[in-house]
Every structure is written in structure tokens, then in C-alpha cells.
Write a structure and sequence with these properties.
Length: about 500
């Protein structure tokens, strides 16, 4: 029996929810609404609440002052598709097969036969079972074929692009025959399962997504709702896009322009929630899918900043995995507070489900945890993670436990973020609290910690696999038969 069928059977027979002893749905003002703003490639140091002195983000300053900053909130991959798969499923991408495929590598491309397996139960499906209206407005990137679209994965409405906005027809022609680049269509803007504009205007995406989101919120203000808003910006290109009102207005070129427009966007939404009288019943989470790609010159911030963390996006460094996160629910989430406990995007699935009054099945495995005690700053709340794993594609490169992060002794040519390609494999140990920038390898001084984390790494290999090795807990990626080009929606 597949996961999705088991989930719906459990819902129909009304299994009693297993909720946190500290926070229950009944403790909140009402069945809470959820909004997740998922920026694209926004760096840890790109906004003022996390240290930026370059970008003006007054609305995010307000969000942090009225809400709670999470300084150790992580994604599960340093790149788009697997990171988004984890948020949707509450699992490491390696568990659900979304970390790598032989056609696309680690990021799905247009016309791919692969996508998130329809048997997986998404966060949208879980909330829909609790009576929630669900919508995604923005970037999907978990499969562009009909079987994999958001409307087949629990969302009532989809408005946005099915993959990264830089995967244009022109980009495909530059790629050529590889990845079917010559057949890539013009970038499609979709409404549900219909293309409504191609190519879409990339300059207007932030503004259009924001306006569409606010219209949808207004239409659903009288019922519990889940809005997933994966913004396109600042994005993967060297010159991000923004609307005319923000273009050329920042101190940091297109990158800064796009971030300041994103700040405008969240300000408009917070104002709307307040005006509608539903702010205190709506948990809003601002975060990013991974860290900024950053420029080769560390003083050049035109490709974003992950300061004070080490490393760039697309790696297993802290700069790739730890993302700027603010949670806001005025009068409920304690104002002006900071959470320094490890939590991740995988936790949103079980946390939202339980806050909505639902249950988390024990029939199939997820990797996330209920972090409501951390969100609402319950006494003595601590991270639910004994171990957290850093994968690059199918290779386990690092493991964290408590304040310690161990980079395993692997071939540095495989993309190790801390070693030059000519270096020999060696274990590196960093204390993430005392050494924020991961500058001091203390493996020699703490062999007991190294040994303990290596044991944890072996457990991950057994469950989630490693390079050239399958894990017993891995499930399969979705795949269609036939030529995807024949199924492109007109």
C-alpha cells in the first residue's frame, strides 16, 4: 500500500493527532494559517536582520522585531530541486529520490521525465486533509510534466513557473543537444495546468507573485489556508530581475534591487494580514532555498553574501545550508527573540500538520520533527536533532551534532567546500558556535567527537545511502514513460 493511500485512510478514520505536549492547535487563537516565503539563493548575510549593511530591508527588520529569528535554520541541500523536495515531503531529498537523477543531475531541467513521486505525501496534501485551502504562487521545480505539477500534489491553485526562471529557451539553445536544450520551450508562466504566458516577463515576477498572493489571501481569509510562496529572486543569474520601481535603486546593483523588492513584498503581505484581522492567526515564515552563490572575490557582494558563515551556495558549507529565517505571528510568536537551536525545512511538514490538528503517520518515514516548541519559545525547548546530514548529490560530506560539524575524509575533488582540489582527504571538525566562520579545524584536539560523528555518518549511509551505495530507507523518484516533449502543455 503506497504512502498516499495510507495517509488518506488514516485521515478518514480520524486517528487521534499526536501533538506536542507544549503547543496544541487548541492553544492558538484558531486553526492557524501558514505562509512560507521561500526565496531563491538568498544569502544568510543578504538582509539587515542577519547583518547586511548594504541592502535596505525595513520590512524584514519589522518582521524580526515583531517575530523570532532562527540563526541555525538549515535546508537539506545547497541547490534548488532537492531543497524544495525536502520542504514538500519532510524528508531528506536522498530519501525521496530527488537528490540526483541520471538525466538532469541534481536539478530538474525542462522536459525532464523525472519529478516528485506522486506516492509521496506533500505538506499541501497533509494540510488539505485538515480542511485547508492550499496554493503555490511562484517557482515549483519538482517536475514540469502533468503528473508532477503542484495541482497533482495537493495544491488547489498554482500560479508561477514550473522550474527556475533562468531555464529559458535561449539558455536551452546555448546548451544544445545536452539535456534536450534545443527543445526547451519559452519560459512558461502557468495558471494551474495551463500556460498563460510564454515567455513570461521575468522583471515582473516578484510584483505579480505578491499581488496574486494577496488576492488569494483575501479570497480565503475566512477559512484556514496554506500559501507556499517560492519567490524567483534573487535567483541563479548574475543579474537578477526586478520591477521598474526598484530597478537601479539599491546600492548593490541587480542583486540588491531584487532583495529590496522582496522586502517590499513581505511588508505588503504583513500589512494585509494585519488589516484583514488575521495576523495573529497566521504563521509567516521567511527563508531561502539555499545560500547565495557569491562572487569569487569575497569583497564583491554582487552575487550575494553568506557572511559571517563560510562558503557559497551549491556546496555543503554552512553558507550553503544555513539560511536567513524569520517567523512571525504577532502576539503568538514572541517578539524580538532569537532561536539558536538547529531546525530545518523538513520540520515544517510535521509542525504544520500537528498545529492544524492532524497526525504524523508512523507507517512511512519522514525525517523532520515538530518544532512548535522552538517557534513559540517554550521553556527548555532544544533542537530535536541528534544528527543532521550534509549531502552533495549522492555523497555524504558532513554531519552535525550539537555545535559540532565534521567534514568527512573524502576526495576533495568531489566538491569539498573547505579543501583545495590538490589536498589529500582528511576529516575537518568545526565548532559552529565558537567558530562561526569555520576557520579552525580542531579534529586533532577532539578525536572522541570525530569518532562519535563518524558513527553517526555510518548510520546515515545505512539509511540514506552514500556514493555508489544505496540506503535501506530510500524511495524512488517519479518518472513518466515516453517522450516528455510530447506532453508539454500548450
Amino acid at each position: 500500500m503506497n504512502n498516499r493511500l495510507v495517509f488518506w485512510i488514516q485521515t478518514l478514520v480520524a486517528i487521534v493527532a499526536v501533538v506536542s505536549p507544549q503547543i496544541r492547535a487548541a492553544d492558538l487563537p484558531g486553526k492557524p494559517n501558514f505562509i512560507v516565503v521561500f526565496c531563491d539563493n538568498l544569502g544568510y548575510g543578504d538582509i539587515e536582520p542577519f547583518g547586511s549593511t548594504l541592502h535596505r530591508t525595513p520590512n524584514l527588520n519589522r518582521m524580526a522585531a515583531e517575530g523570532r529569528k532562527f540563526t541555525h535554520f538549515c535546508v537539506t541541500a545547497g541547490v534548488c530541486t532537492p531543497s524544495r523536495a525536502s520542504l514538500m515531503t519532510g524528508c531528506y531529498a536522498q530519501r525521496v529520490g530527488m537528490h540526483f537523477n541520471p538525466r538532469d543531475g541534481h536539478v530538474l531541467r525542462p522536459l525532464s521525465p523525472y519529478g516528485l513521486n506522486p506516492e509521496e505525501v506533500t505538506i499541501a496534501e497533509s494540510l488539505k486533509a485538515q480542511g485547508y485551502a492550499t496554493a503555490i504562487i511562484g517557482k515549483w521545480h519538482l517536475g514540469d510534466q502533468p503528473e508532477f505539477l503542484p495541482t497533482r500534489q495537493g495544491f488547489d491553485m498554482f500560479f508561477g513557473v514550473p522550474y527556475s526562471d533562468d531555464m529559458t529557451q535561449a539558455a536551452g539553445k546555448r546548451i544544445g543537444d545536452r539535456l534536450d536544450g534545443q527543445r526547451w520551450p519559452p519560459l512558461p508562466l502557468m495558471e494551474n495546468e495551463v500556460v498563460v504566458e510564454a515567455p513570461c516577463d521575468r522583471n515582473g515576477l516578484t510584483k505579480r507573485y505578491t499581488e496574486r498572493a494577496m488576492d488569494w489571501i483575501a479570497d480565503h481569509k475566512d477559512q484556514p489556508f496554506f500559501l507556499y510562496l517560492p519567490q524567483a529572486m534573487p535567483g541563479s543569474t548574475s543579474t537578477p530581475f526586478s520591477s521598474e520601481a526598484f530597478r537601479g535603486k539599491s546600492q548593490n546593483g541587480p542583486w540588491g534591487d531584487s532583495i529590496e523588492e522582496l522586502d517590499w513584498s513581505i511588508g505588503e503581505m504583513m500589512n494585509q494580514l494585519t488589516d484583514l484581522g488575521i495576523a495573529e492567526n497566521t504563521l509567516v515564515i521567511w527563508t531561502s532555498d539555499n545560500g547565495a552563490p557569491i562572487h569569487r572575490d569575497p569583497q564583491d557582494l554582487s552575487r550575494g553574501s553568506n557572511r559571517p558563515l563560510y562558503g557559497s551556495g551549491y556546496t555543503t558549507s554552512e553558507g550553503a545550508f544555513r539560511v536567513p529565517t524569520i517567523m512571525w505571528q504577532p502576539g503568538v510568536v514572541p517578539a524580538g527573540t532569537v532561536c539558536d537551536q538547529l531546525s530545518t525545512t523538513m520540520d515544517l511538514w510535521p509542525t504544520f500538520t500537528k498545529l492544524a490538528g492532524g497526525s504524523v503517520s508512523t507507517t512511512w518515514k519522514i525525517d523532520g520533527h515538530d518544532i512548535a516548541p522552538l517557534i513559540y519559545d517554550q521553556p527548555d525547548a532544544t533542537t530535536p536533532y541528534d544528527a543532521f546530514y550534509y549531502y552533495r548529490l549522492d555523497e555524504l560530506q558532513a554531519v552535525r551534532s550539537g555545535p559540532w560539524k565534521l567534514f568527512l575524509a573524502i576526495d576533495p575533488s568531489g566538491g569539498h567546500p573547505h579543501l583545495a582540489k590538490t589536498a589529500k582527504p582528511q576529516a575537518l571538525l568545526f565548532h559552529l558556535i565558537d567558530d562561526v566562520g569555520c576557520e579552525h579545524n580542531v579534529a586533532a584536539e577532539h578525536p572522541d567527537v570525530v569518532q562519535r560523528l563518524e558513527v553517526l555518518a555510518d548510520a546515515a549511509r545505512d539509511e540514506l545511502g552514500d556514493k555508489n551505495r544505496s540506503g535501506k530507507g530510500q524511495r524512488t523518484i517519479g518518472r513518466i514513460e515516453g517522450d516528455p516533449f510530447a506532453q508539454v502543455l500548450k
